[in-house]
Design a protein that fits this description.
Length: 261
């Protein structure tokens, strides 16, 4: 797949800049502690995916034949993948997650000490849309930058959600929920790369929320936040496949060679 030119990326950014404000869907509903079930959801939910979904997963996820995808048996669960495999969700792919997992996402998950599979689907649309904007404005996608802009919320056992930190709200258009997403999981593994995940893949029940130590040459977020002031960017527009490819968040159409990734 060919990548768009810089002028095309700029044109998209300008068109979104000039667009009318987009109504923002509410964040996921958070139940009260006493309303939570006594048994964690991941102990009860089986996968509803079928063998016929494997080609769709591999094509949409950009797995390019280098990843093995397995549909769980009825008695298998999301938090207990087979040896060598890791859990992911169809809805995460629908929200922009591609394989191999982009390096900035792996580094971010490594910092917050969570597995990428523990992030709710909307988290990927938000995080990738934010990454496109940061990249367009020339800011590095390092945990130091992201942790100043991203808030991590626990949705329940094993589930976490990413959203704007503080009063920022320049990324819009994320649905507030994905009905049934927790039952649309599959297992994946990759043996052709030395370290295909580059982050912690075991599930945890808490996240690290502190901002990393300030780098020696810390980038200033002030110009970026000033540019975002009063803007409403459409997340679905920002995570179009051509933009994901342009910023190398998607490798669809790019062949993986040995351990070079």
């Amino acid at each position: 797949m060919s990548s768009p030119s810089t002028s095309q990326v700029g044109s998209v950014a300008e068109s979104i800049d000039s667009a009318s404000p987009i109504s923002q869907a509410g964040e996921p509903w958070l139940p009260e502690p006493e309303e939570l079930p006594t048994t964690p959801w991941y102990e009860e939910k089986a996968s509803t995916l079928r063998l016929s979904d494997i080609p769709i997963i591999k094509d949409k996820g950009g797995m390019m034949g280098k990843f093995e995808v397995v549909i769980p048996h009825p008695d298998e669960r999301a938090h207990r993948p087979p040896q060598g495999f890791h859990t992911f969700y169809m809805n995460q792919i629908e929200m922009g997650l591609r394989f191999p997992i982009p390096r900035f996402i792996a580094a971010f998950c490594r910092h917050i000490s969570l597995s990428p599979s523990q992030l709710a689907p909307n988290s990927y649309r938000f995080l990738l849309a934010l990454a496109v904007l940061l990249s367009y404005h020339g800011l590095p996608l390092i945990p130091y930058v992201l942790m100043q802009l991203v808030q991590i919320k626990r949705l329940g056992p094993g589930k976490f959600y990413l959203s704007h930190k503080g009063e920022h709200s320049f990324i819009k258009g994320n649905p507030s929920s994905h009905k049934g997403w927790m039952s649309r999981f599959f297992y994946a593994k990759c043996d052709v790369m030395r370290d295909p995940w580059r982050c912690e893949m075991h599930w945890r029940d808490s996240a690290v929320t502190i901002v990393p130590r300030t780098p020696d040459r810390a980038p200033s977020l002030t110009p970026f936040l000033e540019a975002m002031d009063g803007k409403s960017y459409s997340a679905p527009e920002l995570i179009r496949e051509d933009l994901l490819c342009f910023y190398k968040f998607s490798r669809k159409g790019v062949e993986l060679v040995g351990t070079s990734v």
